[in-house]
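Re: the 293-residue chain
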Amino acid sequence: MKRLLGKSAVIIYILSTVCFCMAYVNNPNKTEDTSSGRNVSATDLGVMCINASYPSMGIELADSRDNEIPQEEITDLKKDESAEIDNQQPDVSSGEPEVLIVHTHATESYLPQSGGNFHSKDEENTVRDVGNVLAQTLEKQGIAVVHDKTLHDYPSYNNSYGRSYATTQELLEKYPSVKCVIDLHRDAIAAETPAATVSVGGRTCAKYSYVVSTGTVTYQSNLNFVKTLNEIAKSRYNGFTGKVIERSYKYNQDLSSQYILLEIGYNRNQIEDCRNTADIIGNVLGEALKNQR
């Protein structure tokens, strides 16, 4: 039944895209999304149709980053101008912080927390849980961390990047010593698909990846930093490096010259495997930052 519904969604996507393209050719001025003020492409429209159809089928999209198109330009966005969110005081290490960890999609969860389509307000078994391990590993190396756990994607998923932009900007102004920003996510895979793992030093680890924006002035510096991390990981952990994915969306990466959108594991990874990966990345990141001193 799900396969039939899935095929139906694809057909809807194709038909809507064709119709949209025809309408666009006839009158391109009618392609503005009045809710956000941005132009909607044929691809966007198709994605909207798919997104609207999939939840009722119990199907999870493969890349949570594609479900939300970040604002291309965000200037002076204040938290009180966006949807109400659960503001929390960040965890701050003693000393001058060098790393800021945020979560644009803070409710993303891993197994065994599968409720809410792998989203949870509780911290345990979520990306915030994994962020705690990353922060602790850095702190053990003498690197102070600010770990913000604001639920930017709750109660509304829309404009999560806008809200996390405001939070990140505010914290960077408060802690000018920060050298690196990490927006920690997890990826997603289809139902009943096993999540791949890797054995590293006798530990089972979830795979990870870096998403680098090509649409910011900080693109090259962010990319170079990710490459540096992979070089260290390759040397220290037998080639356990992160896949580098380049995308045109900004993902708030214009806020820092060392901004990392880090995806650790998938929704169907066990939380312990993701914690193990976070520990390894923390050691890699710690070495990279100490080399800059």
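The two ends are 58 Å apart (CA to CA).
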